[in-house]
Amino acid sequence: MKIVSWKDLNEQERVDILTRPATADDGSKAKLVADIISNIRNRGDEALLEYSRKFDRLESDHIKLTADEIKSACDRVDPELKTALKNAYDNISMFHRAQKPAPVVVNTRPGVTCELHTHPIDSVGLYVPGGSAPLVSTVLMLAVPAQIAECPKVILCSPPPVSDAIVYAATLCGVNNIYTVGGAQAIAAMAYGTETVPKVNKIFGPGNSFVTEAKKQVSADFRGAAIDMPAGPSEVLVIADESANPAFAASDLLSQAEHGPDSQVVLLSTNPNYGSEVVAEVEKQVQELSRKDIANRALEKSIAIVCESLEEACAISNIYAPEHLIVETKEPRALLPYLRNAGSIFIGGWTPESVGDYASGTNHTLPTYGYAKTCSSLGLADYLRRYTVQEATTEGLTNLSRTVELMADAEGLTAHKRAVTIRMDILRGAK
Predict the structure, then answer these.
(1) In angstroms, rounded to a whole number, what is the distance separating the alpha carbons of residues 128 and 146?
(2) Is position 324 annotated as part of the catalytic site?
(3) According to the model, what pLDDT value does residue 61 have?
(4) Domain membership flag for residue 276
């Protein structure tokens, strides 16, 4: 990690230092994904199986787990892991259940009632990465809110062979439609449907750059499906003062660096010596990681910045807008009013980012790559759609009629005006 002083940087250098590593693509990735989507949309299962054999080494034509396969997978999961997953499930359920919206009913004028209601999205698809790091926690983060929202149809896709723990976590959340497909081909299958995989209205979940590109493309097509949020490489920013333990900060930085070589971690400190202490701890701790090669590659693109004050650190954090923001200061809650742009904030030295990733109850599906300036963490609302209801009595229409007629006139929309005028003429005639 490079260590720099914020006050020594000019305006352009400050912009450059907070710029994420570019995701290189000469257009070939987008074209490959577009071809995959087109083939699956036109040829269904035939194309889906071809890509699954090519990219995921699928050895059979069987892509949906049977009830017996699901039971066998659940039986193989270690009992202690089952207990851990159930604990996490309970906490995540409690937090997301508290997010249930209440209907809104407002009388805006005598005789005019406006209402806001919600109902669950009819069908949702959950994508859970497999490979070198099967994200069993992601199952809970995606499926618990779908369960609480009571979405009528929920399916899950994960690359073969699907982890037994992923299957067990899915069943905890009532998800029994599990498909052994991954990558861009899974996103295409859920967006358009095949003979085996049903089409869904919205797709949730993280993935590699091909999955991200596929989500982007299907969400731009009216025939495809909506998506949860834009996605990019994982990231964390730590704000620390002289009270922070360098070992804690180093472990938090590494917990994100091990996600992938394109992840980025940032340290903001008010102590000029603290950055060096954390870097030393990082170099020590990284040697103990099973994914140290991946973490080291991420650290090459990461940065430690010395700030003149905690206020300045907050301002820098708001510019960067991190996915995860950890505040390890003497009075961390005092900084909350100054922190605006972050996917999720972790308060104090005893709140590592890991607790949010797994079991505190908040959702770990978060906006990355600066999208935290406009996007929010995943929640129950993402599985619901809002709709409004309005009702006017004769008194209500009378109260609003002149306002509507004048506004319709101003816009030159005669039919809009007449829809009111005709009714008012009848009311006046009745009198």
Answers:
(1) 14
(2) yes
(3) 85
(4) yes
Catalytic residue among 96, 259, 324, 364: 324
How many CA atoms within 13 Å lie on the side-chain side of 100? 12
Q: Is the pLDDT of residue 23 over 70?
A: no
pLDDT category at 132 given cuts 50, 70, 90 is low
Q: Is the pLDDT of residue 272 over 90?
A: no
Residue type, 69: E
| Domain presence at residue 186 | yes
323 is catalytic: yes
Per annotation, catalytic residue among 277, 281, 323, 328: 323
Task: Indicate the average pLDDT of the chain.
Answer: 95
How many other CB atoms are found less than 10 A from the CB of residue 108? 13
Residue 406 in domain: yes
Task: Report the domain count for the chain.
Answer: 3
Last residue of a domain, one of 229, 245, 261: 229
Model confidence pLDDT, tens digit, residues 230-255:
878 889 999 999 899 999 999 999 99
**Per-residue tokens: 411:** 């816009």
Residues 90 and 79 in one domain: yes
Q: Name, in order, each residue with C-beta under 8 angstroms of 227's C-beta and a sequence gap of 6 or more.
A: 202, 203, 204, 215, 216, 218, 219
| Residue 202 forms part of a structural domain | yes
Residue 403 sits in a domain whose CATH number is: 1.20.5.1300
Closest CA to 136 of 336, 358, 299, 300: 358
